[in-house]
Write a structure and sequence with these properties.
The complex is a heterodimer. By secondary structure, chain A is an alpha+beta fold. Chain A has helices at about 5-15, 25-35, 125-130, 145-150, 175-195, 215-225, 265-280, 295-300, 325-340, 355-360; strands spanning about 40, 50, 60-65, 70-80, 85-90, 100-105, 110-115, 140, 155-160, 165, 170-175, 200-205, 230-235, 255-260, 285, 305-315, 325. Chain B contains 8 helices and 17 strands. Chain B starts with a helix and ends in an 11-residue tail after the last helix. Classes of the chains: A alpha+beta, B alpha+beta.
Chain lengths: ~350, ~350
């Protein structure tokens, strides 16, 4: 099952989109949207904005959002002996770096290894130390600074290397699924809507620079100031949980998680749950007691405020190069969004015309 | 066949201690046409014999087949697979690796909880292997019925060449295996070596030189054992007070002593002499860490003089190692020269 979705996932995971360097990925998103939206454009920060017109008499402008960017590495220095120093873009887990291969997007694309001393010669303290990034280096095999400078410049970006793999039971492993799972959900939703005319106007916002401070969505939310928005990101579905046992029991493959908490407009949350129940779409709940983790935080407060909801794709091992999602969850999330766009009363509060959202001015 | 092609194929094969069959079958296919006899002993060593012009004397050339990898300990209810290391792997290089597990080579990842879910203390320490798990995307153990305790898991890394370097897994000791097969190829067809070449690809080196202990058994008139290895290379330290064990690009490394052997002095001088005479760049392994099959062979029967020459490999025993192209060429040249000059090393000359 889900061969088309998997092919699409492989395609979008093959193109890097490190925060601030999303250009090529944005091009890909625009090309994948062709045929299912009326127009797709780029704003000044690099966000992709794609709109579809609805048919409803009392239609609202709904915004569906996901961030395009992924965490990565940036080259900071090249040493005399040719090794390449780097820093992080976004929340890199140092544990995922040691001994790994990286793909550097320099003057040409090349590979290097973040080298570690082997157990034969490393001291006990070295084997158990979690070094800070400034102590690490990328070894691309070059022996002098000049040799490395032919390949790369300071300011170029790199990613921990990965393969996309189809795993058991429609699970899919790759890098940057935070939030390419959300991008995939929106692309799938655009595809589902492609065949029909939705009731409401739908704008898709594929934002930049979420991982470095929710930046694209701040500008995108302002520009678009929708009547209501649903933000599509990922949430923790780790089978290991955490050592404190405080993580809610969200698992991959059992449906997307609908976000609840002060960041999410309760009638919209309720509406999403009702649609899921009515259409027999399995969903889970994600409790976010304090808002701030996703783009929903800045969209909610855009201009005079936006009625905001959140749908999260459960994901294992967030911010590693081998994140895992379940494609069933992506499909279900996209279906839920498409159905929301068909509902005459998506805010579930009788505010069909979006009067409350629009106000008088 | 081109030696680098052999290195590529062999390093991509998956073979850990006790699970060498995949590589052994490939090697057998590569050597069977060029040698006079092929056999496998109870430990899994593959021995290929090429008889020399001198019907009596022989040399034993060894390389080990096994790489460091993992063995499945248990499949948990959650579907997570817990594992042991087979050989010396530091847990430090594991989180986030992609692996292939079980007979069907199922893709999976080495998992540890999301960074956000780690406590501040957890973020400051390297988790032990028992805290990690292989995740094949299952929701329960029901979905992982084709993987069970005792199955192996391997790094997914695939060989590639870039600039002056080769990148890949298991160069320790697929470099030796590749050199050995290449060497046998040099003596195939009409060509015969002066003395009989007993080429033994050993099993289970990484878990205690186990194949090596049986490699020299029953051999008569062995001049010496040439052991072909891959060794640590720590030349990226920026401290000037540090002497690297080996330096990449400085040629194959000759061992004078390591954790399991002190090289027979006459043999050591013979080997360095051959390198000098032929003008082959070489270096001495400046460190005594690690042990090799040479240590086990040296103590076989009445004793066999044994020497190890190694290809320097940066980041050995990890998912990605780096070897230098010219080092590999000189490693082959040195191995070839030692075999060629071996009649010059007296059969009894080792008793010093």
């Amino acid at each position: 099952m889900f061969e088309n979705l998997r092919a699409l996932a492989e395609k979008i995971c093959a193109v890097p989109s490190v925060s601030g360097f999303e250009g090529a990925f944005a091009d890909l998103v625009c090309s994948l949207l062709e045929g299912s939206v009326e127009q797709a454009r780029r704003d000044r920060l690099g966000n992709v904005i794609a709109a579809r017109e609805g048919r409803g008499g009392k239609k609202l402008n709904l915004l569906f959002e996901a961030h395009m960017d992924q965490i990565g590495l940036i080259i900071t220095k090249i040493e005399e002996n040719g090794v390449i120093r780097f820093s992080n873009i976004g929340g890199i887990n140092p544990l995922t770096l040691f001994g790994k291969r990286v793909k550097v997007f320099g003057k040409e694309t090349f590979f290097g290894v973040i080298g570690m001393k082997p157990p034969h010669i490393a001291a006990e303290e070295e084997l158990s130390a979690v070094e800070t990034l400034d102590k690490l280096y990328i070894d691309a095999g070059s022996r002098t600074r000049m040799e490395s400078e032919r390949l790369v410049s300071v300011g170029d970006v790199a990613l921990l290397d990965y393969h996309s793999s189809a795993l058991s039971g429609d699970h899919f492993a790759s890098s940057g699924l935070d939030d390419k799972a959300g991008v995939l959900t929106l692309l799938s939703c655009a595809g589902l809507l492609g065949a029909m005319k939705a009731y409401h106007d739908v704008t898709f916002l594929f934002s930049v620079q979420e991982e470095v401070g929710l930046r694209g969505a701040k500008v995108g939310g302002y520009t678009l100031a929708p009547d209501a928005a649903v933000v599509c990101d990922v949430t923790f579905g780790d089978p290991m949980g955490d050592s404190r046992g405080t993580v809610p029991e969200i698992v991959t493959g059992k449906g997307p998680a609908i976000s609840k908490g002060p960041g999410y407009y309760p009638p919209l949350v309720k509406r999403l749950c009702e649609i899921a129940k009515r259409e027999d779409i399995p969903v889970q709940e994600e409790i976010e007691a304090a808002p701030g983790g996703t783009d929903a935080f800045v969209i909610q407060t855009a201009k005079r405020g936006v009625y905001t909801g959140g749908i999260s794709v459960p994901l294992r091992y967030m911010h590693s190069q081998t994140e895992i999602i379940n494609l069933k969850d992506v499909y279900r999330a996209s279906k839920l969004l498409a159905l929301l766009a068909m509902e005459e009363d998506p805010l579930g509060n009788g505010d069909v015309k979006g009067e409350k959202a629009r106000g008088s001015g | 066949m081109e030696a680098v092609e052999l290195l590529k194929r062999y390093s991509n094969h998956r073979a850990a201690a006790g699970d060498e069959e995949e590589l052994r079958a490939a090697i057998r296919g590569d050597v069977k046409e060029t040698v006079d006899d092929v056999s496998v002993n109870p430990l899994g060593n593959l021995t290929a014999v090429r008889r020399g012009k001198d019907g009596e004397k022989s040399i034993l050339v060894t390389a080990h087949m096994d790489e460091v990898a993992f063995m499945v300990k248990a499949v948990e209810k959650s579907g997570l697979i817990r594992m042991y290391a087979v050989g010396g792997i530091s847990p430090k290089v594991l989180v986030g690796n992609q692996v292939l597990v079980g007979r069907d080579r199922k893709p999976g990842v080495i998992a540890y909880r999301s960074y956000h879910l780690m406590t501040p203390q957890e973020r400051k320490k390297i988790p032990e292997i028992k805290e990690l798990a292989i995740d094949v995307g299952a929701g329960s153990s029901e979905e992982v019925r084709d993987v069970g305790p005792g199955d192996y898991a391997y790094f997914m890394s695939e060989f590639f060449a870039q600039g002056d370097c080769y990148f890949g897994k298991a160069f320790d000791d697929r470099a030796g295996c590749a050199a050995l097969t290449w060497l046998l190829g040099e003596y195939g067809g009409e060509t015969r070596p002066e003395v009989t070449v007993v080429a033994t690809y050993t099993a289970q080196e990484e878990v205690g030189l186990r194949g090596g202990q049986t490699a020299g058994f029953g051999l008569r008139n062995v001049l010496f054992n040439l052991n072909l290895e891959g060794t640590t290379c720590s030349d990226r330290e920026l401290k000037t007070s540090y002497t690297p064990i080996t330096v990449s690009g400085a040629g194959p490394a000759i061992t004078f002593m390591d954790r399991t052997s002190v090289t027979n002095r006459k043999l050591f001088e013979f080997v360095t002499g051959v390198a000098q005479k032929r003008g082959i760049p070489y270096q001495l392994k400046k460190g005594v860490a690690g042990g090799t099959d040479a240590g086990a062979v040296a103590l076989t029967g009445e004793g066999i003089p044994a020497v190890t020459i190694s290809l320097p490999i940066r980041y050995i025993h990890a998912p990605w190692g780096i070897a230098n192209r010219s080092d590999f060429d000189n490693y082959l040249a040195l191995a070839d020269a030692i075999v060629g000059e071996s009649p010059g090393f007296g059969a009894r000359g080792a008793k010093t």
